[in-house]
Amino acid sequence: MNTFTNKEWGYGDEDPRIFTPNEFDADAIVGTLKSAGMKAVILTCKHHDGFCLWPTRTTEHNIRRATGFRGGQGDVVREVSEAAREQGLGFGVYLSPWDRNHHAYASPQYIEVYREQLRELLTAYGSVFEVWHDGANGGDGFYGGSREKRKIDPRTYYDWPGTWELVRKLQPNAVIFSDVGPDLRWVGNEKGFANETSWATYEPHAPDGSGLPGPGFVLDKEGGTGHRDGSKWMPAECDVSIRPGWFWHEDQNSRVNTPEQLVDLYFKSVGRGGSFLLNVPPDRRGRLHENDIASLQGYGRILRETFATNHATGKVRRGVVDVKSEFNVVRIREDIRMGQRVDAFAVDAWIADAWKQLVEGTSIGACRLIRIAERVKTTKVRVRVVKSSAAPQISELGLYTIA
């Protein structure tokens, strides 16, 4: 809906009839994402304005009343989920807990409405790989015509454990994302990067020291690094938009992140043990803008070319690999089935009959990517574990070249 009102956060009083993406093509959108190397797509099924992109039974503020789109018979969730399935991508759902349209928001009744919306999404559209909850909670809104400000306690109002229990029941293989997980944590910024040191373990803390954190009520700054001694395995998910805004705005068509900027974010998210969540907003036609497509295609091409050839030969033996060509990217992985064991490491190259340190770092986890300023010419490379909490389990030492 924000695409048609030129807003970022809708108020909730929008007329559904203005929703007219009459050239909407889910296959084309998903195809572009796949060509960029994406593994899954998460659809914003309902944002804070409460407008639902599927014909829900829980509210009239939904796509069924958008009579200009598919003659009032449209279902964007179904079209995107089917396109993802057909093209081999995972499908996930974003469902805003805050609803500025619904008259019952801030009352106990709304929690049942929210859970019923989740139930619809998790039972009618096939397998879901991720369920995404953000931390925007309460404020002014339409609220069924009352047009007032409503405040809730984000720690207790939603009864998140009960909602997550529903997700586990309906989609047991789905991971749940929020400021406090329980499976994936918010990295604490909307710039798409984790910190140089980023542990997969985490212990959410409330900003007031109460010991009761929740989505929208957490110490954001801790999400980028995590906690080495955290009790929960909760890797960071790094979200950012390909544009300055999260929804399409015509005046931002010339401000799309370049392929090189997106690759840089990949190295600072996936390359720091997290996942990279890139927001790509369709325009009013219901298609991705040409500038976004060009950037995504360039991004995908750079990554494919970079990781097409591993210049390390054979398996890691006692931390050492032989090298068959020059490189300027190092990829290290731990076998995270055994946990995250390495606390500090260094990478050395055999140069002039001696080991020379190229880089050093701390956390590795699922993936650590390191770019080196100049291409390295050597015959062998080693990863040296400087400190570890248990016997190191390095599963890969890969060497690559990025232009």
Descriptive notes:
The protein has seven helices and 19 strands. The chain has 403 residues and is of the alpha/beta class. It has two domains: 2-306, Glycosidases (TIM Barrel), CATH 3.20.20.80; 312-400, Jelly Rolls, CATH 2.60.120.260. A seven-stranded parallel β-sheet has the order 1-2-3-6-7-10-11. It is globular and about 75 Å long. It starts with a helix and ends with a strand. The mean pLDDT is 97.
Structural topology:
Layout: H1 2-5, H2 26-35, E1 40-46, H3 76-86, E2 90-95, H4 108-123, E3 130-132, E4 139-141, E5 148-150, H5 160-170, E6 175-178, E7 184-186, E8 201-202, E9 232-233, E10 236-241, H6 259-269, E11 275-279, H7 290-306, E12 312-317, E13 320-323, E14 327-334, E15 342-351, E16 354-361, E17 368-376, E18 380-388, E19 394-400
Parallel strand pairs: 1-2, 2-3, 3-6, 6-7, 7-10, 10-11
Antiparallel strand pairs: 4-5, 8-9, 12-13, 13-18, 14-17, 14-19, 15-16, 15-18
Helix pairs in contact: 2-3, 4-5, 6-7
From the structure above, extract its key features.
single chain, 403 residues, alpha/beta, TIM Barrel, Jelly Rolls, seven-stranded parallel β-sheet, five-stranded antiparallel β-sheet, 7 helices, globular
Structural class: alpha/beta
CATH architectural group of the largest domain: Alpha-Beta Barrel
Count of folded domains:
2
Radius of gyration: 23 Å
What's the CATH class of the largest domain, please?
Alpha Beta
Straight-line N-to-C gap: 40 Å
Mean pLDDT: 97
Shape: globular
| Strand order of the biggest β-sheet | 1-2-3-6-7-10-11
Brief synopsis:
The protein has seven helices and 19 strands. The protein is α/β, with parallel strands linked by helices and 403 residues long.
